[in-house]
Structures are given as C-alpha cells and as structure tokens.
Design goal:
seven-stranded mixed sheet, 2 domains, 243 residues, two-stranded antiparallel ribbon, Rossmann fold, binds S-adenosylmethionine, 9 helices, alpha/beta
C-alpha cells in the first residue's frame, strides 16, 4: 500500500501547532525547527512532495519535542516552589534598587515580578505570553513592554539599556551544546547587573547532585563580573555585577 502524500511546509507547521501548548510559539521559530530537522536528516524540501505518513509523524514528533524543550515545559514545578522562587527574585531585585529590567526568555515571569516602580521590558518567542503580559501591563499601568525577540539572533545595541537583565531558566534551553550563545547574549546586553538562574532538577525530575553551573561562573569571571550565589529548593541564582 502506497501511503505517501504531498505535504507543504505550511501544512507541517499547522500540524505541529495543533498541540495547544505550542500554539503561542511564533511561526518563524517553528519553521526554523522544521528546517533544522530536514537539514539534520538530509531531507531536501522537494522530497515533501512524496512524504510517507510515517515520515511525517516522525518529523512532527521530533519538532514538537524540540519546541517543548525550548519552551521550558520540561521544567514544570509546583505552585509553592514557584512562589518561593519569585519571593527570592523579588528580594534580590529590591536589594539592588533598580529602575529598569530586561527579562530575557521571560515566560510569564512579568505577571509575578513587575511593579509600578520599575520599567519592565520582556522578550520571548512565545507570542501568547507577550500578548498576556502587554494586556497585564496596560491594565496595571506598568511602564515597559513585552515583545518578540529570538535570542539566537541577538544583535548589538538591539535591546534596551537597563539596570538589570534577568535570565531565569533560559540558558539551559537556548543551547544544548557549549555556551557560545550565552556568552554572546551577555556581551550584547547592556546592563549593570545580571540575575541568572538554572533549575536544579534534571529533565527526569531528579535533583541534581551539583546544581551549580561551573561554566557560568568561569564565563562571568572571564567577562569581568563579580557574582553572588543563591539557592532555593529547585533553582540556583547568580547575581552578577560588572566590576
Ligand atoms: C524554561 S522557560 C523559563 C521562563 C521564565 N524565564 C521562567 O523563569 O519561568 C524558557 C523560556 O525561554 C523562551 N525561549 C526559548 N528560546 C528562546 C529564544 N531563542 N529567544 C527568546 N526566548 C526564548 C521560552 O519561550 C520560554 O518562555
């Protein structure tokens, strides 16, 4: 039985986004994940004219897994743990007395961290988060905005100059191998402080034996930052300051 069919990239994209939790991810991000899959498997686009059902299923599954990973859905934690983490972040931010924040890979953090005293800029690839955050800011009269920005394409001087850049549980998801992108982001973000965090649980939910990230400590030192380390039950934080 020949169950091969012609399918367009657009149709593949729509199929992938049928999962409700992936609907907010911007189409440009989904397209580049599909292209990455095709390239990795040496599949020329014209082959899509004759793609077998089974091959489509494998592609859709693989790309969805990539997108679940970058959207951080593997790091789900309880409400209580999340509340403890936000308390810690608020405590750190208020000790710095900052007037402006840039939250990179913000997720829905701004709904919990923003206040009327601080200008809050937030970026993400998930447009449903961006819309939610902007309506929340408008309703509460919070200064600042959320906008689409792909950190993998970061360019110098393209992000607002702020007092503190917050990167919570983001560096682990934006690059799987090496830390070149993290370095590029730190170099291209204009701020006095960085607040960077990482989850302390593995993808399978087990606590990590060594939750500290030696690589970020070395990178910060090399780039001329001093830092302090904090820990909650399921997250580790580095507060770095340019010296
Ligand atoms: C693990 S979640 C963390 C969300 C939030 N910072 C928090 O602490 O709950 C990772 C976030 O990074 C965003 N993200 C992933 N890749 C990105 C990229 N290339 N550029 C900007 N944001 C990205 C995801 O959409 C997601 O909101």
């Amino acid at each position: 039985m020949d169950n091969s069919q012609k399918i367009t990239l657009r149709e593949i994209l729509e199929k992938i986004k049928q999962k409700p939790e992936l609907q907010g991810i911007d189409n440009s991000i989904v397209s580049s994940a599909i292209e990455k899959y095709l390239k990795k498997n040496s599949i020329p686009i014209k082959i899509l004219d004759n793609f077998r059902e089974k091959e489509i299923k494998i592609l859709v599954k693989d790309v969805r897994a990539q997108l679940h990973f970058i959207s951080g859905q593997f790091f789900e934690i309880s409400e209580k743990e999340r509340a403890d983490n936000y308390t810690k972040v608020k405590e750190i931010l208020s000790s710095l007395n900052v007037k402006s924040i840039l939250d990179i890979g913000c997720g829905l953090n701004p709904l919990f961290l923003a206040s009327n005293y601080i200008e809050y800029n937030a970026i993400d690839i998930n447009t449903s988060y961006i819309d939610k955050i902007n309506s929340f800011f408008k309703k509460k009269g919070i200064k600042g905005k959320a906008f689409f920005y792909d950190l993998r394409e970061i360019k110098p001087m393209s992000l607002p100059d702020v007092d503190v850049c917050v990167a919570l549980k983001v560096f682990d998801v934006i690059e799987k191998r090496g830390h070149k992108l993290a370095e590029k982001i730190i170099k291209n973000t204009r701020c006095r402080y960085f607040l960077i965090s990482f989850p302390t649980k593995t993808l399978s939910g087990k606590p990590m034996t060594h939750p500290q990230r030696g690589w970020i400590e070395r990178l910060l030192q090399r780039l001329g930052f001093s830092f302090q380390f904090f820990k909650t039950k399921d997250e580790v934080f580095y507060l770095a300051e340019k010296v």
